[in-house]
Backbone:
């Protein structure tokens, strides 16, 4: 008797042993996608969800279906099953997206390749004849119990994955005469598929960038924490000085790698500047960013990650023979994927691209960026499964409605005023810095001297100050004057580091400044007995979001980013209120978005010659018709 079961069992065991890393990565990526949908659905009030579904039902099926939808959803909410319903909806949406991502490209392939059609169609027919629950067995074996096998089960059903492949293939083969029209409709599908590939490549580049930054930060921390003999500091100082001089030389040779990279990415998308040597500039940005931050300068990893992603999108569009009109979409997708890899926040990355980088084709940009961001964020979550922001507690203070209104108004006013001072100071120092009549190596010497002193006094303030912010958010210090001193020291150091033009962003230093400012306000309120000590981190998270709004003027990005990286929906609605008030106050104070000002300074600087925009020529035909007019009409 032939025992096929033992061979199948052996094959499964071999795959579980040798491909466990791959299955864990897929599990983490799909799990992050499901969690993202759940955060969005849980963050929307139930009555808004019911209203939206009722409107959709009315438009598609009429008044009766809409009334039935409202009554049914109200019954679900009243029975206490709303949370379970939203979890189920998140699974359905995730499985649908997975089916489309896999099924549509396969359908296009089988329609254009008779050989692929002969191979895949029997497989699809077999999959449709098999009971659906059969597919749960290998899914549970490889991914374990949980939501991910459920998504795979939903995606493979005949009306999902196999249906998507069959419908697309049959549609393309059925009517050859209308193929050209249908091909135009599939251009977007191809673009979305390529954006997923861009997200994967960006994640594979940006995540090692983040890993190496953390590695050198820990290496430098171990050195200063060991308190070696004084003479060991001298070779380290000279080595770091040489590193900074080398990076400044790289920036001089390749001006596009300077700073964070968001203005440069926007300039390329708008056609103002061009990546003339994208691969070399990608390598220079990667190496220069790691070296600059590894010396302890107060810069962020997010800006270089954004520009690295845009370089990847540009190279894919160039090497993959993508249509020129789609190139800016892949640039935007790569930029969003870079931010998603830096923070593991795909939703916020899509919003940042729409708000700050590419504003002309928002729906298509949102889809491509979200797809690329989910893939890059999945790679980041796989490499860095522990998110330190999840350990921050956000306990809402027990205040009346009137007290909350006063608190939100106070936070918005303080943050708006401080945001204006921050923006003005940063821009003035950045414009004055190049005019300082000292050689570049002397300027690097001054910066490194400050970084070395801070490393010996409060090490966590270096490298952007993110570690210092996390430590204060988890265990806030109660000495107000000490926090004020640390915030001012970090502020001045960040401004000079960013003004140097070395590769590195200002996103994380801005978040750190906003968080420390919120801690100072919260400590004063604790002294006055208005809130408790455990509410300090709650105020800090709200101020981080609002300060980002005041400086960068991307309210949706700021609100979603803090909620997404911390997982605290408690700060979502307060961030909307405080962020909205801050946006209004900054408009009154006439604060120009920092990235917009940096972009305008960049395209008008001597190092960046303005190039022609993309143009679209349209030919219009017209006919001359013989017309007769009365004698009193002059033509």
Residues:
């Amino acid at each position: 008797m032939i025992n096929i079961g033992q061979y199948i069992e052996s094959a499964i065991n071999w795959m579980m042993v040798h491909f466990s890393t791959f299955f864990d990565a897929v599990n983490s990526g799909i799990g992050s996608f499901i969690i993202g949908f759940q955060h969005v659905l849980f963050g929307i009030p139930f009555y808004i969800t019911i209203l939206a579904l009722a409107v959709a039902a009315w438009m598609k099926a009429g008044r009766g279906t809409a009334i039935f939808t409202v009554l049914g959803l109200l019954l679900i909410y009243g029975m206490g099953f709303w949370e379970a319903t939203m979890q189920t909806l998140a699974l359905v949406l995730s499985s649908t997206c997975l089916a489309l991502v896999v099924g549509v490209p396969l359908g296009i392939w089988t329609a254009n390749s008779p050989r692929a059609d002969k191979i895949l169609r029997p497989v699809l027919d077999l999959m449709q004849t098999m009971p659906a629950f059969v597919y749960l067995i290998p899914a549970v074996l490889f991914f374990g119990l949980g939501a991910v096998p459920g998504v795979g089960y939903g995606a493979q059903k005949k009306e999902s994955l196999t249906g998507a492949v069959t419908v697309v293939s049959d549609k393309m083969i059925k009517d050859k005469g209308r193929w050209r029209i249908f091909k135009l409709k599939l251009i977007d599908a191809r673009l979305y598929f390529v954006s997923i590939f861009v997200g994967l490549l960006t994640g594979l580049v940006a995540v090692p960038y983040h890993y190496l930054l953390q590695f050198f930060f820990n290496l430098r921390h171990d050195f200063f924490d060991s308190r070696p003999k004084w003479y060991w500091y001298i070779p380290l100082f000279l080595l770091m000085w040489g590193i900074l001089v080398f990076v400044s030389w790289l920036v001089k040779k390749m001006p596009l790698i300077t700073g964070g990279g968001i203005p440069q990415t926007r300039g390329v998308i708008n056609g103002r500047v061009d990546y003339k040597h994208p691969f070399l500039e990608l390598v220079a940005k990667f190496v220069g960013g790691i070296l600059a931050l590894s010396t302890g300068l107060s810069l962020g990893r997010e800006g270089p990650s954004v520009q690295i992603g845009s370089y990847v999108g540009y190279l894919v569009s160039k090497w993959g023979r993508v249509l020129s009109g789609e190139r800016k979409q892949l640039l935007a997708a790569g930029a969003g994927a870079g931010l998603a890899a830096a923070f593991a926040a795909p939703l916020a990355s899509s919003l940042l691209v729409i708000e700050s980088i590419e504003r002309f084709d928002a729906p298509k940009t949102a889809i491509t960026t979200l797809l690329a961001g989910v893939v890059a964020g999945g790679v980041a979550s796989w490499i860095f499964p522990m998110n330190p922001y999840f350990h921050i507690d956000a306990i809402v203070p027990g205040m009346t409605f009137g007290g909350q209104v006063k608190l939100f108004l106070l936070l918005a006013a303080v943050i708006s005023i401080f945001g204006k001072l921050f923006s003005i100071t940063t821009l003035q120092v950045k414009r004055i810095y190049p005019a300082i009549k000292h050689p570049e190596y002397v300027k690097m010497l001054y910066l490194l001297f400050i970084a070395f002193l801070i490393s010996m006094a409060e090490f966590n303030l270096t490298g952007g100050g993110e570690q210092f912010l996390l430590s204060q958010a988890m265990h806030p210090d109660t000495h107000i004057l000490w926090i004020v001193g640390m915030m001012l020291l970090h502020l001045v150091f960040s401004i000079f580091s960013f003004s140097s033009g070395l590769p590195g962003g200002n996103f994380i230093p801005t978040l750190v400044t906003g968080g420390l400012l919120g801690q100072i306000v919260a400590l004063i309120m604790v002294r006055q007995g208005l809130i408790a000590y455990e509410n300090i981190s709650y105020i800090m998270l709200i101020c981080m979001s609002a300060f980002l709004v005041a400086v960068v003027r991307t309210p949706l990005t700021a609100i979603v980013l803090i909620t997404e990286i911390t997982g605290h929906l408690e700060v979502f609605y307060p961030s909307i209120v405080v962020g909205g008030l801050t946006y209004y106050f900054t408009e009154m104070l006439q604060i120009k978005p920092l990235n917009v000002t940096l972009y305008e300074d960049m395209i008008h600087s001597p190092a960046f010659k303005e190039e022609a925009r993309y143009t679209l020529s349209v030919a219009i035909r017209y006919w001359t018709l013989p017309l007769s007019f009365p004698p009193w009409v002059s033509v």
